[in-house]
Amino acid sequence: MELPELKNILKRLYKGYVAKHFKRIIIALVLSLIVGASTSATAWLLDPAVKKIFIEKDKTLAWLIPIYIIFAFSTKGISLYFARINIIKVGNRISGELQKQIARVILIADIQTLDNRHSGKYISNINYDCGAVQGLVSSGVLNIMKDSFTLIGLVYLMFYQNWKLACFAMFMMPLAIFFAKNLGKRVGKVQTQAGEIAGDFTSFLSEIFKASKMIRIYQKEEEEKNNAEYFINELVKKNIKIASVMIRATPIMETLTGFMIAGFIFYSGRLISAGELEVNNFFSFLAAMMLAYQPIRSLATINMLVYQGASASKRIFAVLDNPIETKNDERLSALKIEKCNINFENVSFKYINTEERAIKKINLEIKGGLMTAFVGQSGAGKSTIINLLPRFYEIQEGKILIDQQDIHKVSLFSLRKNISLVSQDVILFDDTVKANIAYADPKASQNEIIEACRFAAADEFITKLSDGYETLIGESGVRLSGGQKQRLSIARAILKKSPIILLDEATSSLDAESEEVVQNAIANLTKNKTTLVIAHRLSTIYSADKIFFLKDGSVLDSGNHDSLMNSSVEYRSLVEKQLK
Ligand SMILES: Nc1ncnc2c1ncn2[C@@H]1O[C@H](COP(=O)(O)OP(=O)(O)OP(=O)(O)O)[C@@H](O)[C@H]1O
Ligand SMILES: [Mg+2]
Q: How confident is the model at residue 303 (pLDDT cuts 50, 70, 90)?
């Protein structure tokens, strides 16, 4: 990361997040000043201690100075404690705020944005990157304040005790700073790589859970184990690298300190014999120099924390800055449903990551209260059309109207409130049956839920479950059969009581018997509703009031089953293939 970019990121972090906690930072700053002063005081006290107690043998100071020393140390300890508490709160709250913002972005993001980035990356942003920012604030900010103040106090004391010796000590400092800067850069680089690997690793982990059966049937345990080991090894390597670069500061600094103290003793000896330095000044100076070691080392490693926090912030800000294309203007009027006629006028749509348009200048006229079916080969654009209606994806051209209201000119909330969706892949939460159905309407009474389940032909199997409606169904409903899950999802759609219903191959994974049950459930769901249905099964298509036959993103033919059988060769051949 280049310096201007780093500065920008830190500036944004400060303005947007840290500045809010200004009061606590100021408190920590004042406490850091006290830490610096009391640390210097402990070194300074050696001067009167040696002079008054050891040389002049003063009786009163012999017990006063030890008391001062106790006081200085405890002041340092207590103020450091409170400074840390304050900064830890700030760091964790900032990290929490970032996590909340990421969570919010994930929840309101465009479906396309989510389609194009692995969920594991988002999880890693929340877990790993926010932790790094917290480290930067909690340790970085406090160390900068307390260590600089301590260093300033100690350097001041050194000059106070003997300026010649102090100049000598200062001469050694640039050397330490040079080493420190170098280390910081190296660690920053490795840290960024480690952050990216952590993201990939999280993605990988979430995949091996989802693919548990596939891994076993294709016998990829060994391969996936190797993949896991690769990620883990890389992370171990990077973490060792980070730690080893960090502790490389120790031998360098220790040797440097050795040189400093050796030179210092040699030089002091000459100053003392020349009568320019007293023994008491020597001890106080020595103490200050030794105490300065810790803040120098800590300041030397601070840029590593800064790099680490900044590269994590960069990844977080990239997520937060992703523009949300699905504009949700709350000031727009609500959609008013009367007849529930739906019209597509010259609608074209292209997915961002593809060349060709998935929907090409389509015109559809859909009568309210009836069932409209979409048929066509795989990839013809059926699911895409259905996804355009609740604005999961934004069209680039044309208009979609519901009762003559442009769906882009009514509030998104009112639009989606009027639409139910049952898709092929049923989404169930790790919760009870009841909670999964009440997701459509949390205020629904027990009776309403049971009624919805009766309509969906789900009540019978639910009551047979161990705890009935209170049965926990596990992550994505693992404890239910495919058809049972589908019926729950239909019950949920019934409970929403919306006038528009979208069914994307809601029955395709069922056997004939369960399909009949689910078909009846669907018939109950769609009675007097405007239904858009995608189905491969002829039984659904026969009963549709209107059928659109799609090919390569365009409407090839439309009409009811009988008229299409007469007018469209392609439709007839599609039906005949199924009957064979
Ligand atoms: N998220 C996506 N990103 C990019 N392209 C997509 C995406 N989803 C679908 N497509 C492409 O858009 C075209 C239409 O896909 P769509 O899912 O609408 O087909 P479909 O008619 O529903 O097919 P199927 O019967 O197989 O479900 C296809 O060429 C497909 O590759
Ligand atoms: Mg589809």
A: confident
